[in-house]
Amino acid sequence: CLLTSIVVHAQTQLKGKVIGTDDQKPIAGATILLKGTTNSGTVTDAEGGFTLNVPANAVVVVSYIGYLTQEITVGNQTFLDVALAPTTTSLSEVVVTGYNTERKKDIIGSVSIVDMKALKSVPAGSAVQALQGQAAGVNVISSGAPGSPANIFIRGISSFGNTQPLVLIDGIQGELNDVSADDIESVQVLKDAGAAAIYGVRGSNGVLVVTTKKGKSGQPTLSYDAYYGTQIPQQGNVWNLLNSQDFARLTKIAYPNTGLFQNGLPDFMYRGRSATGVGNAGTPAVDPSRYNFDANNPANNYLIQAVNKTGTDWFHEVFKPAPITNHNLTASGGTDKSNYLVSLGYFNQQGTLLNTYLKRYSARVNTQFKVRKNIRVGENLYVFYKQNPGFDNLSTGNPIAWTYRAMPIIPVYDIRGNYGGTFAGPELGSSSNPVAVQNNTLNNKSNTWNVVGNVFAEVDFLKYFTARTSIGGFIDNQYYTNFTFTPYNNSEGNTNPNSFAESALYNSNTMWTNTLSFAKTLGQHSVKVIAGSEAIRNYGRFLTGSSSGLFSTNFDYLSLTNGTTNITNGSSAYNNTLFSLFTRLDYAYADKYLVGVTVRRDGSSRFGANKRYGVFPSVSLGWRVKGEKFMEDVTWIDDLKLRGSYGVLGSQNNVSPQNAFTLFGGTFFNAYYDISGAGRLSQGFAQTSIGNPNTGWEENIVQNIGLDATFLNNRLDLSLEYYKKSINGLLFSEPLPATAGGATPPTVNIGDIQNKGFDANLTYRGTVGTDLRYSIGANITTYQNTVVNIPGPGYFDAANTQNLGNVIRNQEGQPVSSFFGYKVMGLFKNESEVTSAPAQSGAAPGRFRYADINGDNKIDANDRTFLGSPNPAFTYGLNLGLTYRNFDFSSVLYGSQGNEIYNTVKSFTHFFSTYVGGKSNDLLNAWSPENPNSNIPKIESTGSFSSSGVSNSFYVENGSFLKLRSLVIGYTISPAQLRKIGLNKLRVYAQGANLFTLTKYTGLDPEISGLSSAFGVDYANYPGNQKNFIFGLNLSF
Amino acid sequence: CNKDYLEIGPLGTTGEATLANKAGVNGLLTGAYSLLDGWGVPNTTYYFVGVSNWIFGGVTSDDAHTGTQASALPPMESVESYNYDPSLAPFNNKWVVLYAGVQRANDVLRVLAKVNDPSLSADEAKQLKAEATFLRAVYHFEAAKMWENIPYLDENVSYSNGNFNVPNSTSAWPKIEADFKFAADNLTATKTEVGRANSWAAKAFLAKVYMFQDKYAEAKPVLEDIIANGVTAAGQKYALVNYADNFNPSKKNGPESVFAVQMSVSENFQNGNYGDALNFPMGGPATCCGAYQPSFSLVNSYKTDPNTGLPLIDTFNDSDVKNDQNIESSTPFTPHEGTLDARLDWTVGRRGIPYLDWGNHPGKAWIRVQSVAGPYSPIKTVYYQAQAATTSAFSRWTSNNYTMIRFADVLLWAAEVEVEIGSLAKAQEYVNRVRARAANPAGWVKKYINPANPLQGFTNEPAANYKVGLYTNEFTAKGKDFAREAVRFERKLELAMEGHRFFDLRRWDNGTGYMANVLNAYVKHETSIPGYDFTYMKGATFKKGKTELYPIPQAQIDLSVVNGTPTLKQNPGY
């Protein structure tokens, strides 16, 4: 103690100021450390200033995230002016990876570090959508529906089930979808086994390591970030549909006997209990006095609607400009003993589709305390509440589909203001009025509470050891109401009673992680070891009930008790656990030769006793070439590292916790029976699932080689990787013939899917003069996906559509989700072409001529072939950033090349032989004897194998695209002016999102999500490329 | 960490051990019954799998067309036009459901063998075993009707035994016969619950199995026994009831019901008649979906000779019954004035005739797209307006039973047997027994007291010009060939729209081309009606020697591959 005080007395006071070379503005929160210490230092205040007592001949290290660290010999200076140069790849930047942190330059696994600035520039309710195009090797496919989850594939699809990566938010499994981008400090993507194997069975789809912001020591800061904007739906005739006049004309070609258009476009249409028809004004049947609407007894309805003679633009009846709002308030600060961060968020995105929205209220509290010199405790807590009614996106029965499936002649409202529809008139088909459908979702509510977080403690002991324990998890609570109105205006179900369903569920995840780490450097040798255990439990319950025939449709009246018939209830539960031991050893010699070894042993309750445990090893090697003598003279290379890894990851994602058990059950639907014949159901049982105790882990074997380099005085960073991923023992639902019974087959280990490809990342930073600085970041991801082996017949079909049957076949030798059907050579021009062509069912002039793939001179099921796949050859992202004095400018481009789309919309809009409804303007150019060279099939009411009846290449389109995801122009008010009004920072910006999408695709949006075994099929999906115009500000004081 | 941490049993489900007792096996047996309606196996489409076989017995025969609108039921175009492709979903759905039923019945037998429950008496165990065996035979039999060459699975075939790939190269008929015989020998004659199979139901199925193999000599004594002594599960002597009562959900399980699939909507609509949920008019009662449309030829079959009241067996299709094709509901229309068999208006809804108690059928207003669907609606699966609250749910699910065998069926088989190996006079007697009921004006459709309010009831005035006569001595006078045709025609009239016609034609064919002749003539008639654009049947041809059997589902052949070779063999011609 005496000694310490002597040292103190020997100190002198050093003051200084830290600014950034990029904007010449003060850097708040930069760390000033005495070299060789970890805790003798300070942090700059809001104006970049600092005061520090330093010993004589001190050397200080000045660092700030995103800037190059500087070492400064103090000498006899008492005031330091420090100008930090920014860098995107600060090599000594510390990065959070598996249960640990690493210096970026030491990473030998495959880790993508996401550019947070670019990520935050995309307006989105979740960080997932913003992640798109920001990390090589990561493909994100998102939908425009507010709050709808996006598909994330890291290095291609490696299973037919869940492909979502493990998302760890401060070490706790979470949903990136629900995290506000404002709260995120950093995102790392662990892509190969070297990086992810320490997560063993949890890491098969890759890992996203997300760290949220923490308070920094220094003066408390309060910052406020907000934006407000408008989303604009696509304009014009988006489906290219016929107007009413043309629709009537073409309908008469298809149906010469049509009652609807026998005399051209009528004025009115009507239907009552036993009468329907059309009539012009003055016809008794459409006299308004006959109109009758009886809400309680719709069977008595007599509805009359006026024909919309120009054509109802159904799309724009339900898609309207909609606002998007985001507010985030953060208070943070701390001392060298403790720090805190509290943030409050509010996000409200109204969907452009009526009655779709996401509202989220969130709060985050992160704190850390240094209770002793060697003991740290802390917690991370995130709570949110959201309201986000679901939207059935991948369906031809959703309201977006009704916008092309409803006829143009049907009005939105009938003559008395009730909904128009297919009821009131003859031959109107069975479509729904999308305005009615969406307005009638008003009683469908979804409320979710979620609490996620952890508490942790760390102890340093015996000089080289640190022990850490963390207990955390999440609990969510979801509550839904769903009310179905009597669709009185539909041709189908117009007398159905209304019905109400109410359901609640909760999910919980608890996770206890303990690690012990050791780090020691001895001369040229540096060793780091971490060992740990982890216990995870997932438990949840679900409860639901429904009833129908409610007297009132007012939301305040709705309760299950008030239903009169069809009363049902049900509940379910799940429980599963995982217990794991893991260790990792990192060894480096002279900072040049790097070795990492990990082993993880997982035990899972999902598997039977004989297959319960799995061991997942990996090894990675790195060589920092730049560290070698012969590189010393190569001055244009700042750093160069080669690395490679091999390892095994596991997966238990696609197996039910009950897979090992043969189970029986019974519900009204599948086993109850009125054996008494008197309307009293008897309980019955039936086998519901077949168990297989021999099912075990799926193993992903991942090989990776990579190169990281920095050139041109740290201006150019390059990272290049090649990988190969194959699956051993793919978890796959066993294909069983019906003779095994009707129970759900077990999941077994058969099959293999392989992915290989390149990831590349390139960043360049430059300046022009002193005022203009710019950066260009580019990344590209390629993958080649092949189904190597699946059981049964070697294929399975997916994406069942009502008009065309299954349109996807997952087959050995093909990429997953490949489109399958007949290849269209063109249309038969005339009878003689039909006669000379191979025999084809339904062949006729004006119909499709299919390719005789097997050359047997007849067209049958053996001539079906692969028509393309939604897997892109590559996807790419391009971030441009530019600052000029107080102005900043950035843009994010994202593109996908070589993917195809299966456009099922055309099966509705291009044929009169499919569902009655809106039809395409393309049919104006349909084949006819007078127009024999058209590529649009003949107008006819008969469907056939040679027209609308089967899957064929008519529906497959090029889905490549390039989107301008974001364009931002910002202006930062100069600090001098701000100081006068007590502010620290104020930036205002204007932004346009999705200003263009370059594509040849004819549908709404070429970016189409779906299941991993069936994606890229367009059923009328919620477009994600609507233009947004936004104004925002960032403020702190 | 405690080892128990990873030992987690399934939640909210039942294991075999829980069911290995009296109540559990009874529950499994109920589960095996519950699949009789076809509905209850995941990933099957309800309208393909219904026990009524409206598709496989009705639409593919000369009873009916599929109506609906273009493409609403896509594979139906191919099914209706005999373009059967083994990959079409309806075939696979039906197969999947029937074999799930077989294995449910086998589950009863498997678990029963493990029961050690003193409260289960030997007699009770015998009934459980016999009922399960009966159900196993019913499911196999339904499959044999469709495909003929089917695998037969006893209780030793299971996933855990690894022997579930069973070939279809050996005839299943002897095994089906043996199961029904076992059931007939062991089941009691009456049951406390009328939905259960009794010994007479088993005998009737045994007779039906004989009929499918043309084993007339074996069938004869069984049929005579049933006619003389048979009783329902409730103990009522078999008899013909008022014709319409067979299709009235409030009069189900009467003396004519030999074995029926029980439908119920009182607790949950899912136990209603799911398979027929599309088979209502569009715009009238139930408002959906017009999928099952009686044909012109069927309606023509009900024309009778104005003098004798006998059917026009050879000339019925020479002219069409007057109909309202292409006539708006608002345009006046007078229904057919010639003589008709009264059963027509309990089988087919047509313009101007009372449609149960829903009002006079308004014609086009109740037809989805009349230009392709034709002018007629089905009736037999429809419920009554006055009973809607108790016999229907969500408009389209009803408690109408599907009667797999009714007593009229038995009488007409007996007539067939007499034609082939017995007395033509006796055959005529059986046929007349069925016709006498049809001829009784008490059972005819009557006009409404007030057509504007059909719930006020009916007058005594017949709704149309009905005339049904009995055969006098035609069977003996005109000989065996005439008699055979007369019996067959009677089956068509009596059982139309009940899903039997296609299978009856198949039974009668035996390589003679009879079925192809009947159905190709039917296609020709239906596609040549002026103003009727029957798109689904254009170019349809029934191929003799192929189309009589449905194709074995390709998916099942693919899944039956063992060591590179499929265990199942496709039917000829596919």
How would you characterize the overall build of this protein?
- The complex is a heterodimer of chains A (1037) and B (574).
- With 1037 residues, chain A is mainly beta.
- Among the domains of chain A are: 2-84, Immunoglobulin-like (Sandwich), CATH 2.60.40.1120; 94-227, Beta Complex (Ferric Hydroxamate Uptake Protein, Chain A, domain 1); 238-312 and 398-429, no CATH class; 752-786 and 874-900 and 956-1037.
- Chain A has eleven helices and 60 strands.
- Chain A has a 22-stranded antiparallel beta barrel.
- In chain A, strand 2 and strand 3 (41-43) form a beta hairpin.
- Chain A is globular.
- By secondary structure, chain B is mainly α.
- Chain B has two domains: 14-270 and 551-566, Serine Threonine Protein Phosphatase 5, Tetratricopeptide repeat (Alpha Horseshoe); 286-378 and 417-531, Serine Threonine Protein Phosphatase 5, Tetratricopeptide repeat (Alpha Horseshoe).
- Helices cover 39% and strands 6% of the residues of chain B.
- Chain B is built from 21 helices and twelve strands.
- Chain B has helices at residues 16-19, 22-34, 46-49, 54-59, 75-80, 89-112, 122-147, 173-186, 199-212, 216-229, 296-301, 344-347, 370-373, 388-391, 407-421, 424-439, 474-478, 480-495, 501-509, 514-526, 554-559, and strands spanning 64-66, 257-261, 292-294, 348-349, 377-378, 392-393, 397-398, 402-406, 446-448, 458-462, 561-562, 565-566.
- Chain B has a two-stranded antiparallel sheet with strand order 1-3.
- In chain B, helix 7 packs parallel to helix 9 (199-212).
- Chain B is globular and about 85 Å long.
- The model of chain B has no long low-confidence stretch (mean pLDDT 94).
- Chains A and B meet through strand 19, strand 28, strand 29, strand 33 and strand 34 of A and helix 1, helix 2, helix 5, helix 6 and helix 13 of B.
What's the topology here?
The complex is a heterodimer of chains A (1037) and B (574).
Chain A: H1 2-9, E1 12-20, E2 31-34, E3 41-43, E4 49-54, E5 59-63, E6 70-73, E7 79-84, E8 94-97, E9 100-103, E10 111-113, H2 116-120, H3 127-131, E11 138-141, E12 151-154, E13 166-169, E14 172-173, E15 184-190, H4 193-196, E16 207-212, E17 218-232, H5 244-254, E18 268-272, E19 275-279, E20 303-306, H6 314-318, E21 322-334, E22 338-350, E23 357-372, E24 375-387, H7 399-405, H8 434-439, E25 445-461, E26 465-484, E27 499-522, E28 525-548, E29 565-589, E30 593-604, E31 613-624, E32 637-651, E33 663-665, E34 686-689, E35 698-711, E36 716-728, E37 731-733, E38 747-749, E39 752-768, E40 772-782, E41 784-789, E42 795-801, E43 805-811, E44 818-821, E45 824-827, H9 831-836, E46 839-840, E47 848-850, E48 858-859, E49 865-868, E50 874-884, E51 887-897, E52 900-903, H10 905-909, E53 956-958, E54 961-972, H11 975-980, E55 985-993, E56 997-999, E57 1010-1011, E58 1014-1015, E59 1017-1018, E60 1027-1036
Parallel strand pairs in A: 1-7, 13-16, 46-48, 52-59
Antiparallel strand pairs in A: 1-4, 2-3, 2-5, 5-6, 8-9, 10-15, 11-12, 13-14, 15-16, 17-21, 17-60, 18-19, 18-20, 21-22, 22-23, 23-24, 24-25, 25-26, 26-27, 27-28, 28-29, 29-30, 30-31, 31-32, 32-35, 33-34, 35-36, 36-39, 37-38, 39-40, 39-41, 40-50, 42-43, 43-44, 44-49, 45-47, 50-51, 51-54, 52-53, 54-55, ...
Chain B: H1 16-19, H2 22-34, H3 46-49, H4 54-59, E1 64-66, H5 75-80, H6 89-112, H7 122-147, H8 173-186, H9 199-212, H10 216-229, E2 257-261, E3 292-294, H11 296-301, H12 344-347, E4 348-349, H13 370-373, E5 377-378, H14 388-391, E6 392-393, E7 397-398, E8 402-406, H15 407-421, H16 424-439, E9 446-448, E10 458-462, H17 474-478, H18 480-495, H19 501-509, H20 514-526, H21 554-559, E11 561-562, E12 565-566
Antiparallel strand pairs in B: 1-3, 2-8, 4-5, 6-7, 9-10, 11-12
